[in-house]
Amino acid sequence: MENYYNISWLEQDKLHKTSILKRLFYFFSRPLLSIYASQFLSSQALKILQPSLVLPGRGMPLETRRLWGAALCKIKEATILVQGTGTGWDVISWARLKPKKIIATDLFEFKDSWSEITYYCKQSLNVEVEFYQSPLENHSFIKDESIDLCASDAVFEHCQDFKSVVKESFRVLKAGGSLYASYGPLWFCAGGDHFSGRGGLQNAFNHLLLDSEQYMKYFLSFLQNNEDFQSGGRYVELDLFSRLSTQEYCDIFQEVGFQIKDLILQVDHKSLEFKAKFPELFKQLSNKYINKYEDDFLITANLVRLGKPSSNK
Fold first, then answer.
1. Nearest Cα to Cα of residue 261 among 311, 307, 312, 301
2. Is residue 20 part of a domain?
3. Cα separation of 223 and 235, whole Å?
4. Could you point out which of 35, 201, 234, 285 has its C-alpha 20 to 30 Å from the C-alpha of 185?
5. Does residue 145 sit within a domain?
6. What is the span of the domain harbouring residue 74?
7. Residue-level pLDDT at 225
8. 3-class SS at 102?
9. Do you find a cis peptide bond into 185, omega within 30 degrees of 0?
10. In total, how many domains does the chain have?
11. Radius of gyration (Cα) for the chain, nearest Å?
12. Which residues, 6 or more positions from 74, have their beta carbon under 8 angstroms from its beta carbon?
């Protein structure tokens, strides 16, 4: 795909680092942030989804998410499966926790960075890493019940056959194993296609409001000549979206057999701003998607910890 470029894994790793002071600030302020953000969701949504926290888009830095995601397993003895790793930069953040082994996979191959990261993790962190190119719904090279923790960030919203991905995660996890995932923007929020919003806030829900012909005209008019390979432009061209709401994700988790241990919701400030500035357009969303709640247009991301029941239960 010659019109796309890759951001180096080193640059991505640096971009996602958060200072200790900021992490401490978020640690102490999260309860207050949750109270603030919860006011934007309906009491019905809060009752049905029962989130552990509701956050205003911030409050869970990468380092915090890693510790939170790994808390349900014995990380020093764990084999981690990093799903949808892309260039592999996220593997380093898991390797810093010093697990026993990391297996990382992606639909596309990033051979050069994968080789460099494998070497870096072994030499600098003494953690063995293996990379494989494979669709997430088919990891036949991984044995049944051989993984302690499945982990992913910004991946589940791109799985076209999401139920199969969850089934495969369930298969490879050991009894009593856990799954951590953060995913979003969700399809029904502002910029849910990772593209709408280019050209101004009034375009934030174009992927939902425009018909296919109008949307393609909008897409082509704002597509750049040279985009990040892991960007909205590429995702739209490949149609890499699950198109699910928070409740639909949770329903699939439970249908496959997972127990939802924790669910954190993130409320989108752009969606809230759009609702305030363009009430008529926001009303069109509700009229067009009558089977969705207003909350679905406001929730931008989910963070989940799931558990695979122990075999003796």
1. 307
2. yes
3. 12
4. 35
5. yes
6. 4-307
7. 77
8. strand
9. yes
10. 1
11. 19
12. 148
Q: Exposure pattern of 56-67 as b/e (b: 16+ CB <10 Å)?
A: bbebbbbbebbe
d(CA 163, CA 249): 9
Whichever domain contains 286, its CATH number is 3.40.50.150
Residues 244, 162 contacting (CB under 8 angstroms): yes
Strands across the sheet containing 79-83: 53-55, 259-267, 299-307, 173-183, 147-153, 79-83, 101-106, 128-133
* pLDDT reported for residue 227: 67
Contact in structure between 78 and 148 (CB atoms under 8 Å): yes
**313 is a domain residue:** no
Query: What values do phi and psi take at 124, rounded to 5?
Result: -95, -30
Among 179, 176, 217, which Cα is nearest to 70's? 179
Asked if residue 312 belongs to a domain, the reply is: no
Q: Which two tokens stand for residue 91?
A: 């593997």
Instruction: Report pLDDT digits (tens) over 109-144.
Output: 999 899 999 999 999 999 999 999 999 999 999 999
Query: Among candidates 250, 192, 309, which has minimal Cα distance to 52?
Result: 250
For residues 139 and 81, what is the distance between their CA atoms, to the nearest angstrom? Answer: 10
Provide the whole-model pTM.
Answer: 0.93
Beta bridge partners of 130: 103
> Which tokens is 82 given?
């990093």
The pLDDT of residue 8 is 73
- Using the structure block, give the residue that is written with the tokens 């609702």: 275
The amino acid present at 184, given as its one-letter code, is G
The gap between the terminal CA atoms of the chain, to the nearest Å, is 49
The DSSP bridge pattern shows strands 4-5 and 53-55 to be unpaired
Q: What is the mean pLDDT of residues 223-251?
A: 87
